[in-house]
Design brief:
The structure is a single chain. By secondary structure, the protein is α/β, with parallel strands linked by helices. The chain has 2 domains: 174 residues, Rossmann fold; 143 residues, Rossmann fold, CATH 3.40.50.2020. The chain has 8 helices and 15 strands. The strands form 3 sheets. Strands 11-10-9-12-13-14-15 form a 7-stranded mixed beta sheet, with helices on both faces. It is globular, with a radius of gyration of 21 Å. The two termini are 30 Å apart.
């Protein structure tokens, strides 16, 4: 717990809370804040219902509540909502939900009739539970910030990932590759972070996972170049593995993939290992168990960025300033 007092004001009190999805990340963030995780009692009833109670008073606190909803995602999301509700009912002054990975973020619009907009539903659930603010990292689409009526701190992991790529491959002839035309803006951002590199994209993303039976085509120059394949997440890894094979077939000298969120569903690690890719760089916004950490996988810690952002919010500073350089 961190406290400080401005002249003529009451003492502010930062309290940090964590759900059970990603204890390693929670521990690292707490260390970065110079505080501890608030103790709580949590258990699951025989019928699967979740119970949470905080072991000390939270009245008047500036509460930051971390959850990184991995599989089973609905269980962890429900635990997060219950924690926020408990804080609201215990008179926390302000509740900031810290979601490094925003659940249901891919369901941000209706593609066809009779479909839900689940990303909006999650925002509504958090609002109803009592959240005043959301902090997240690299939303699937930035427009999803508008689903929440309060402040949203949309953090960016690309500078962290790009620094690793620059340190490892900065002397190579690099082309930044988007897996489809919808990720060209992301590729442009990466190209700038890597010092003005050229970009390319794959014309038909669906063809990479076998859903689209038409031909795929690389638009841009990749022959003889190191291709940095960028996306916001790697889930089944079918797209990443398929794109790697296409790029190597087009004459790329090597392929490195970079993404913020390592969902890595069942079979993803095996697909990556068999694709011919040189390295996959992720952050630990989601827990990545040892069984999925194949040798070609590099996982960077997002904890320092989250700790700095939490500190800026607590002290009334600027989260945007973290990325201005």
């Amino acid at each position: 717990m961190t406290t400080f007092q401005l002249p003529g004001t009451a003492t502010k009190r930062l309290m940090f809370f964590s759900g059970g999805a990603h204890p390693g990340l929670a521990k690292d963030i707490a260390a970065g804040l110079g505080t501890s995780i608030t103790p709580q009692t949590a258990h699951t009833f025989a019928n699967g219902e979740t119970f949470v109670r905080f072991d000390i008073s939270v009245r008047g606190s500036d509460a930051f509540v971390l959850q990184a909803p991995s599989e089973p995602i609905n269980t962890w999301l429900m635990e997060h909502l219950i924690m926020v509700d408990a804080l609201k009912r215990a008179s926390a002054k302000r509740i900031t939900v810290v979601l490094p990975f925003y659940p249901y973020g891919r369901q941000d619009k209706k593609h066809r009739g009779r479909e839900p907009i689940s990303a909006r539903l999650v925002a509504d659930l958090l609002t109803t539970a009592g959240a005043d603010r959301i902090m997240t990292v690299d939303l699937h689409t930035a427009q999803s910030q508008g689903f929440f009526d309060g402040p949203v701190d949309h953090l960016q992991a690309q500078p962290l990932l790009a620094a690793h790529v620059t340190a490892s491959y900065g002397d190579a002839e690099i082309t930044v590759v988007a897996p489809d035309s919808g990720r060209v803006k992301l590729a442009e951002k990466w190209a700038e972070l890597l010092g003005g590199r050229p970009i390319a994209f794959i014309q038909h993303r669906d063809s990479l996972s076998g859903e689209y039976r038409g031909a795929n085509r690389v638009v841009g120059d990749v022959r003889g170049r190191l291709c940095v394949l960028v996306d916001d997440m790697i889930d089944t890894a079918a797209t990443t593995a398929g794109a790697t094979k296409v790029l190597l077939a087009e004459g790329a000298s090597d392929v490195v993939a970079a993404a913020t969120h390592g969902v890595l569903s069942e079979g993803a690690a095996e697909r990556l290992a068999g694709s011919g890719i040189r390295e996959v760089v992720l952050t630990n916004t989601l827990p990545i168990p040892a069984a999925k950490r194949v040798p070609l996988l590099t996982v960077l810690s997002i904890a320092p960025l989250l700790a700095r952002a939490i500190n800026e919010v607590f002290e009334g500073g600027s989260v945007t300033s973290l990325f201005e350089s």
